Amino acid sequence: MFSYGANVRLQLPVKRVNRVYSMAATLFMSSTFHSLDKMLATKQPRSLALSLASRGHVDCSDRGWAGANGARSVIETITGRRFVTRLLLGHNQLGDDGCEVLCDFLCSEEGQKYRIEEISLNSNDIGDRGLRALARYLLGNTSLRDLFLQNNCFTADPEIISLFSAAVSTSCLQTLAMSANRNLSDGFLSNFLPALTSSHLEMLHLSAVALTPLSAPYIIDYIRSPRSRSLTSLTLNGNSLGYRAIQAIIQAVQEDNYTLVKLEITPHESGEESDEESTSMSSWRFSQEVLKALLWRNDDLANRVKAEATVLLKYSRLLLLKPKKAVDSDSALAKEAPRQGFAKLPTELQLDILSSLAPTLSATQRIRVFRYASDSRTLPPDPRRLPSLSRDRSISATGLRLRRSPVGGITDSAESSGSASQLGARTLWPDVEARLRWLKAVGCEAYEKGPR
């Protein structure tokens, strides 16, 4: 029944009201469970991955652990884990004694079981003895990627700095942070950079380490040389380099460095510059704009080199790599016809035609890509191949017999086979990291000066 009054109301029979409520509840629960199922389907794998990754993180920052006893507490924490990838020990007081005890463990047979990728020891009162111990751990280390040593008590002892530089050069370290070590000064840089030959170091942080214009020649020599080819980020903020030294560094980037995409070099306002070295704010801003344009240039050229190298590999693999199997079917012969015609051309003409696909690459970069593309040992595993039943130890978990390629990739043991189109289909990478490893292996991760 409907009734109208001062306040309009809608009156329905009780059974009908209950039926409406039941239908609404059913729809609500159905949509809720659907949303939950969707959320679990999309979120659970990510949360599970994050959970598994976090199990390898040992965060003992700001525990007040000091000396050798503090290091033993760290070791006890490490050995209580099945694996450790990150070791965060910042803001303790381990000092030289604790650092030596920790590095002795990490260098031991038991410690080497832990493939640690990141170690943070910032603000730990570590001095030269601790740095020597770290150099021993770094020597030939292939697992550590990031090392943070800010705000410690290192000095510029020439012998220890040379040892540390040599250890970094033999390791696979990608990030080294030495900022806020004000006792380092020019003596550190004069011994560290000339001996640094790492092909893996990508980020170097040297802010607030009391550098003066005396360090500028060593910085310039390093960023001009091929030894800095892997370096993409350099921070020199908070030093007293001076305007002229900074201008010389920017000029070195302009003329000879195409790998840096981040260079922070804000001067320290100490008021100690001479009148002839002082400059107006407008001049400094202009220098910063020039530097910004140069870094953008490097980034743009690097992206173009990477893209062109990838395209060049794709077509070079198709045209330069010869199939091992004879082609029988008519359709396969038709597909092979263009390649057969290209193969009849002189080698110099073949390479010249392919070079037009990558005009930004230097001649030496293109040659490295050609050599890689024409080598059947660099082919990735053929996904069409059935797993082998061999019991050989070189058999992987997937059943494929593996071997190391000339550039460090994994390939199958069988020689290349099939048509050129099938070979071309096996030139892609399973992920972005694999592609970056290949670009680095053939020296195509950045622009390279030289004949085009």
UniProtKB/TrEMBL annotation:
PANTHER family: RAN GTPASE-ACTIVATING PROTEIN 1 (PTHR24113:SF12). GO terms for biological process: nucleocytoplasmic transport. Keywords: GTPase activation, Leucine-rich repeat, Repeat. It comes from Dentipellis fragilis. GO terms for molecular function: GTPase activator activity; small GTPase binding. It comes from the Eukaryota. The keyword Repeat applies. The keyword Repeat applies. InterPro entries: Leu-rich_rpt (IPR001611), LRR_dom_sf (IPR032675), RanGap (IPR027038). One of its GO terms (cellular component) is perinuclear region of cytoplasm. This is F-box domain-containing protein. SUPFAM superfamilies: RNI-like (SSF52047).
